[in-house]
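Recall from the previous chapter that SMILES is a line notation for molecules. Here it describes 2-acetamido-2-deoxy-beta-D-glucopyranose.
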Amino acid sequence: MKVTAVVVLGLLGTLTLFFKAQASTSLDVLWQAAANWTGTLPCGGWDCQCLFRNPKGCCCVAVPVFQLEEATFMRMMGLWKDLNSLNNKIQEITGGRNVAFMATMTPITGCFGPFNKNVSISYCNVSLNQAYGYNPALGTFTAPRAGLYSFSYTVYSNVGAEGERLYHRVQLMKDGQVIASSWEDNREDAEDSASQTVLLPLKQGNQVYLELVLGRFLCADTQGYNSFSGYLVYPLSDI
Ligand SMILES: *[C@@H]1O[C@H](CO)[C@@H](O)[C@H](O)[C@H]1NC(C)=O
Ligand SMILES: *[C@@H]1O[C@H](CO)[C@@H](O)[C@H](O)[C@H]1NC(C)=O
Ligand SMILES: *[C@@H]1O[C@H](CO)[C@@H](O)[C@H](O)[C@H]1NC(C)=O
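With both inputs in hand, we obtain:
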């Protein structure tokens, strides 16, 4: 635009000098002269035809304004597309990020077990279940999305008196595979507890749960000390 203005001013200056002899510098005369000019008008981006020869009823900056409008529009479209894809990425990352659960065994006065097979433990007292990944009826957590997950559990048992056999083994399972376990087999201490935390990369739909191993038992958890919790540390798009 600046260059165009300079060119037009230059042209007007030249025309002024040219018609100095007529002792008139009124714009009308300049326009007349330009209109009478038979050579090429050096107008740059301006529409000279419009400006000097046919000024009535035509926008002389129509072409540059149109070009500016076009360029601005294209730029806006580009920004709009970028903004949209950024928005989608944010949605993808934050959407379903809040996955967490916490559950305890409901208090038992007697013992849970022994059973003649490995039995999954249903921690029925659910205090948190964001994204509903945990099913208290089965005691199973199903990963709602792929990600790195953290799981913790605490095993507690009290068989009453010294001399009684404290005998349990609880294992954290991922789709039938043992990931971690905690156990006890002694007659010295009647009451014991142990905790473990693991980090597990999971695919969507992977299942994590705790099993009591066959022949073993958990007793007198009157406070809900046996617990199972987990949460999504961060999502993974593909594992
Ligand atoms: C332009 O041409 C017209 C005739 O076509 C003439 O009357 C007029 O004086 C001319 N103007 C200048 C500034 O040369
Ligand atoms: C469930 O757990 C909460 C603590 O999170 C406890 O206050 C409540 O008594 C428990 N309820 C049952 C039925 O075990
Ligand atoms: C039960 O768990 C024990 C200990 O991990 C294992 O040796 C055994 O194979 C399991 N039984 C079945 C049927 O999976």
